[in-house]
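TA notes. Do not distribute before section.
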Amino acid sequence: MGSNPLFLFNDMDYARSQKAAEAVLAPVIEQMGYELVDVKLLSEAGRLVLRVMADREGGITLDDLTRISREVGPHLEVADPIAARYSLEVSSPGIKRPLKKPADFIRFAGQVTAVKTKDPINGRKRFKGIGRGLDEEGRLALELTDLKETVHIDLDLIDEAKLDPEITF
C-alpha cells in the first residue's frame, strides 16, 4: 500500500495521513454495522503501521475483524491517503479501550478511566478515577480515586483517555 519510503514522513504528514485515512474508513466501517473506535498511524520497528480499532455492541470477533480488514483494504488502495508503504492492522479496542468522542465519556460513565492531559491541571497531567460523564459545560467529570475529589477536564485538553479496569486474579 503506498509507494514512497517511510523516511520521508514528518509529524505533519502523520497527522494529515491519519485524518485522511480516518475519513475513508469511518463511513465504510459504520456502513458495515461497526463502530470505528480509533485510527493511529505510527512507526514500529522501522515500518509504518495503520492501526484501526473497531467494535460493535456485544463485542467484536476475529471473523468481524477479518471482514473489516478485507472490506477497507480496497477503499484505502483507491483513496491512497498515506503516501508511503504501510501495513494495515485491524483490532478490537481491548479492555483498555480508548475514549475519543464526547459520547464515549457518557457511554462509559461509572468505569475506571485513565486520562493524560496536554497541559498540567493543578500541577499534574495524569489522572485516574471513575468517569462520571460530562458536566453541564461539556467537560469530563472524573472522580479521582487518590484524592476523593472530582476534577473537570475540558475535552480539548485531553491528550489520551482510556478505560483502565482493575484486573484481579
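Switch to the second chain here.
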Amino acid sequence: MAEKKDRDLSVSRGEAVGVVAAQSIGEPGTQMVLRSFHSAGISSMITTTGLPRVIEIVDARKRPKFPMMEVRLEKNVSKNYDRVKDIWKKIEEIKVSGVMDRFEENLKSGVLLIFLNKEKMERYEIAARTVAARLSKMEGVSVDQDGDTLKIKVKEKEIRSVRTKFVKIMGHTIGGVPGIMKVVAQQDDEGTFFLTTSGSNIEGVLQIEGVDKDNVYSNDIFEVMRVYGIEAARNLIASELMKTIKEESITVGFRHLGLVADAMTHTGAIKSVGRHGIAGEKESVFARAAYEETVKHFTNASVFGEVDRLKGVAENILIGKQIGVGTGRVRLAIKKEELKKIRKRD
C-alpha cells in the first residue's frame, strides 16, 4: 500500500504542475463565502477568514488585518491555572489608557493630569509609582505623583505638538509585551491550558518565563520570517492557506498549496503572486504583459531591447504556440522505411 501511495503522489517529467495547482485552487475557490470578511472567534478574538484571508496571504501583505498568536506553555505550568494567569498578565500589553479613570489636559500650559483606577491597577498588579517611573523615561516629559494622580508636564511649546505628546503618553506601554492587545486562556481536551492573543510579537513572548519556546504559533507571515527564517514562513503560508480553505469545507490537496508557497519564497524573500511579485518579475516579456500593465511591459521591452525565448507556458499560449509541458514535451519520429510502408498501404 505504501508503494502505491508513493506512486500516486509522484510527478511525471513535464507534467503541468502549475496549471494543475491553479485549477485545483481556483475552481473550488470560487465557492468560498464572499460575505465572511471576518468571523468572531473565542472570547471576541477577531480573525480574517475565507477569501479575504486567502487574498491577504497571496498578496503578501506586510501585516495581517487581525494578527494573532497561539502560545503553548511549559508542562510544569500548563495545567496550573494560577501560574497560567500570571503568564497571561506578563504577556498582555498594559497602556496608560488601560489603567486610568479619566484625564484632564491643559494644552496652553502643557500639563496633563491622569487619574489612575485602583481596580484596574490591582487587576494588572501594577502600582502608581511604577506607572510614573515608566512615563518619566519618556523624552521631554517630567512626572509628579500624588497618590493615584499623575501630573505630567511636557516641554513642547506648540499646541499641536503638546496634543500629540499627550496622545503618545496615554498610549505608552507600561507593562506586558508590546503589540499584544488581548490574551485569552483556553483549555484543550486534555485539560492543558494555552493562550490565544490578539496581536503578534513572537520575540517579546519568547522572553516570558514559562512559555514553551518551541511551540509558539503566529499568523503573521513576515514576523515568522524575521524570527524563524524563510523555511518557517513557507510552511506557514501553506498551512494558513490549507486551514482557511478547510474552514470553508473545501478540499484542496496540500501539494498544490505547497507549490504556491514554494513559488512565493524560493528566492529567500516573500513575494506576492501578483504584478508586484512573481507575475511581474517573470523573465518573459509576453508573460509579464499577459498579466497586467501590457503597454508598460511592451514599451520597456522595446526601449531596453529585451529578448523573449518563449520557454514558459503563458507566453506560448499568448502567441498560439504549443507549450512545452504535458503532451507538448513529446516529439515523435518515424523511420523512413516505416514511412514508406505506410504510404504504400495508403
